[in-house]
Automatic annotation (TrEMBL):
GO molecular function: GTP binding; GTPase activity
Name of the protein: Rho-related BTB domain containing, isoform C
Gene Ontology terms: biological process: ameboidal-type cell migration; cellular process involved in reproduction in multicellular organism; developmental process involved in reproduction; epithelium development; hemocyte migration; melanotic encapsulation of foreign target; small GTPase-mediated signal transduction
InterPro entries hit by this protein: BTB/POZ_dom (IPR000210), P-loop_NTPase (IPR027417), SKP1/BTB/POZ_sf (IPR011333), Small_GTP-bd (IPR005225), Small_GTPase (IPR001806), Small_GTPase_Rho (IPR003578)
CDD domains xrefs: BACK_RHOBTB (cd18499), BTB1_POZ_RhoBTB (cd18299), BTB2_POZ_RhoBTB (cd18300), RhoBTB (cd01873)
SMART domains for this protein: BTB, RAB, RAS, RHO
Keyword tags: GTP-binding, Nucleotide-binding, Repeat
Species of provenance: Drosophila melanogaster
Amino acid sequence: MPKMDNEQPHQELVKCVLVGDTAVGKTRLICARACNKHVSLSQLLSTHVPTVWAIDQYRIYKDVLERSWEVVDGVNVSLRLWDTFGDHDKDRRFAYGRSDVVLLCFSIASPISLRNCKMMWYPEIRRFCPDVPVILVGCKNDLRYMYRDENYLSYFGEKGTFVRAALKSDLVMPDEARAVAKELGVAYYETSVFTYFGVNEVFENAIRSALIARRQQRFWMTNLKKVQKPLLQAPFRPPKPPPPEVTVMVGNYRQDIYNMFLSQAYTDLVLVGAGGTKFAVHRFMLAAASSIFQRLLSTELTDMGGRSSSESSMVSSTFGEATIADFNDDTEALIRYESRTQRMWEHLKRRSSYQALPLMESKRSNDLYRELHHPVLQSIRLVHVENHRGVNGLQTIVTLSKLISPQALHQCLRFIYTGTIDKDCDNIEEIREAADLLELPQLTQLLSRPQTVMENSSDEPNPHICLRIKESMERHCIGDGCFSDVTFELDDGLMKAHRAVLVGRCDVMRAMLLGDFREAHSNVIVFPGVTIYTFHKLLCYLYTDQIPPISAVKCLNLLELANRLCLPRLLNLVECRVIEDLTLISQNETNETVDHCLKLLEPVKLHNAHQLAEWCMSYLCVNYNLICKFSLKGLKALHQDNQEYLREHRWPPVWYLKDYDYYQRCLNELNKELKLKTSRRESPSDDEGCLCFTGGKSKRSADVSGTTDNSNADNQIFNSAGNSLNHIDLEADMDLNL
């Protein structure tokens, strides 16, 4: 069994020493390469404890030794990493001994560590290792974009953290580090153990540097002939920042609608059940949920039997659109009306059969009454009542048969308003029969599957059932204006609504319609500055708690209205819809989304749509280059603070564009050199004649000069300031849209 720590045949052993200030990331870099260790952000930001990675781990741990083996340009190499303390007064003479390459490390977030590389560390290296190749390594290059990351900054708000967050003024840019490397005559690479950028690359090129230096001393070794010069490192492009998340605040839609049922505000229909139990409800709610009530309440009384034309016109106006303010009255008004009857009439009413009650009450001259030949609906009656404001109106009373118990009727009404039933109810079969009789298909479908009954009896209703109910409300209440009692005069037309929903779902509407304002007594309310398109979206939200898709071009009026009416959830929903529309437009690969964002950025802030403004700002930062190419006029129209923010947070950042431009120019120069060498090899020799006499002195001189050139090229791999891969002066600044 071969020894684990011995050099194997046909294998090159490379000793790589890492030096630099303390806390620059030397040990982390060694662990990332030798142990393949990945670290989290919390580990990186923990309080620094000076440590040194022990070199004897290659002898103790087999996996560490196996990871040291690597094939570079066809050469088997065993890379041995040596860690050192960062204290300036330590004696590192033993670590430098017999080293093949030295990595001079500094932190991207510490300009002082870079200055010490020039003033202290490089002279020390040259004192102990005058001929050893040196590579300048910038560690923690992820901090160039993470210094303003919210997740990164969150770690510094905790108590007990002794690490200071990196600031923009602390960062060392690539051109600054490259200038120091040029002054020292060494190559420059960057790494990050967090993103693992450049970890393997820097050590591979360190091996190449060591092997090239070894090839100069052992020119007879054929296995080192194919070793390349250190390769050019592509610049690190920061990851594209994700768009900000848009949250929608939780609404109280179901509770608001249920409170509308409990408060009995603006009710215009009374259901009289078995035992004289009365439920004050709203006609538009029952018509939207139940087909039988939709047919009943939409049919004129003249179609149910004989009636004079005057009575027919009166009933038609009653069941059509409301023309009197506060047409929908409370149950209390009906109770006050009935309390004025004589005691003998109350005694007879309690003793009489429930089926005969409507006939006896219909004898009043001001009432409109009809019997209904239906197993559930017995009669319908219209009565004149007076509300708390002293305004006379009409109330509809529908008497039900004894087939539906008051408990089952209450659960059916609860389902109509909220989409749920009481979780404590135990008469499921009775409720299902009542749902069949009242033609409530959603409730019937729910109760036909017992396993879903308890799920829907909880506080959260079934989403599919709620969707069906909301679609029905939108179709009947918003689209048709069924049984509306108020009309809004808008800029481009009229729209009808129901006071009960407006009061129950919007506090501003509640104050306007219930307070001592003119709108509380008006049949038509003037609403200036609002269009039908905008008001329709508002009604969709009030009735269904959702809004249909919205175009980014038409969103400002709705945002302004939502902000004026103090509806933050509607504001969030509009933001989501607009972002969906902008995201869809951005897939066309045009600058249309950029133009929309430039136009929306500042106006939406005025209406407190901060999430939409943040999304627009993020999109503009990511597409800053498109702005400079196609929408420069719109950019200059923004406020100066917004322009400065976009320049500061643009992606890719300016330092990357400069570094990428430098990288491209390096590649172009390398390609030119490669083409020049290829053309020289393919050109014919100037000495023509007998082959026996060619290649003499001229050939020997060419070989000598070639050897000298190669030797000089190898010596200048890290020292050349003109042809090095990492040292091409930035003489011409390109147009980077800065």
